[in-house]
Amino acid sequence: MKKIPLLCCCLQLSLGAAAREDAALYFPPAEGEWERIDPVSIGWDVAKLQAFMDYAGKNKSSGVVILYRGRLLAEHYWPLNPAEKNPGGPRSAYQHMRLGEDAGGRAIEDVASAQKSVTAMLVGIAQHKGLLKIGDPVHTYLGKGWSKAPADAEAGITIRHLITMSSGLSPRLQYVAPAGTQWFYNTGAYSLALTCVSKAAGMDANELTGKWLTGPTGMKDSRWAVRPWQTSVRTDANRYGFATTARDLARFGILMLANGNWEKTNVLEDKAYIKAATSPSTKLNPSYGYLWWLNGGPFVPRAAGKNKPGRLISSAPRDMYAAQGKLNRRLYVLPSQQVVITRLGDQPGSGFNTEFFKLLRAASGK
Questions:
Q1: Strand runs (DSSP E) across 124-260, as ranges?
Q2: For the chain, where are the E strands, in sequence order?
């Protein structure tokens, strides 16, 4: 593997206006170097930022990127062995998730359920193009009998129910409850939202994603990849995984921070949809929007119908929202601080997210 500098930008001076705290939002080019910003110039503590990165590295991270208004504030990569066994246990699922490297030697990984948030934005683009409406019944695009629910129950399930995890179906698409009456984290059902988009657009997932999202934002190392370990879409896992890098995922975060704009291109034109996607979508789970996790809710649903009181991550800003995936793959967007953070890698230790943000807060002073 090509060796990459561990902490790329903590002590580097930024370019031109990037050194000012009031610098405009920056959109990195598809090719070439990203602008960087000196942490000291915006009041960050370099030693504490290094401690933050050290903690991430000790907890099986393969890459962490922190952006301030689009500019690289810190970036760190660690080599992880996909075939490494956990102490006293089987090999980690990470062996299935690492899919190669980009031209710079950075890991390309299947980001697991973090891809749900990508799907949410593709649904929004399709709706703005007039290809579908989220209030449409799913059978409009998949035909009747797409689920194992009774016909009358199936007819009431809309795309909105899929992207708010309130379809009333089990992971194997069996009827459990009327649509909109229960919140249940259900990958088997949600994944059909992307199928609806593909059917409506007359394009496969990679073609439409390239034209609508990854192309305009320069996410050149991102694609939908078939998961050879997952052969059936009727189980609680998507047959396709969104493969990307920590940098490409951070580009998606910049797009969200910019309210759907990328320089002069309006990628996500429906601003009301963006707001709805990053706001509570149902009283059943105030910590969930349209396939985005939110940090301002009073509780977070857990298994067996139980709720965890409090916010998603108590040490993170209330306005933070996140794309979250297995093995703690994360994209965090912090609008009030104009910060985007991505974390890829293997499963970290217990309490990682809380400590992660405590250390970040100590470094930023916010």
A1: 223-226, 240-244
A2: 61-68, 71-77, 98-101, 107-110, 223-226, 240-244, 261-262, 265-266, 293-294, 299-301, 307-309, 321-325, 329-334, 339-345
| Domain extent for 332 | 34-44+64-364
CATH number at residue 301: 3.40.710.10
Is this model's pTM higher than 0.90 or not? yes
- Looking at the structure of the chain, the number of domains it has is 1
Rounded Cα distance, 210 and 212, in Å: 6
Give the Cα separation of 187 and 327 in Å (integer): 16
Q: Phi/psi of residue 26, each to 5°? A: -110, 140
pLDDT per residue rounded down to tens, the chain (366 residues)? 444 444 444 333 333 333 445 579 999 999 999 999 999 999 999 999 999 999 999 999 999 999 999 999 999 999 987 666 555 566 678 988 999 999 999 999 999 999 999 999 999 999 999 999 999 999 999 999 999 999 999 999 999 999 999 999 999 999 999 999 999 999 999 999 999 999 999 999 999 999 999 999 999 999 999 987 765 444 456 788 999 999 999 999 999 999 999 999 999 999 999 999 999 999 999 999 999 999 999 999 987 678 999 999 999 999 999 999 999 999 999 999 999 999 999 999 999 999 999 999 999 999
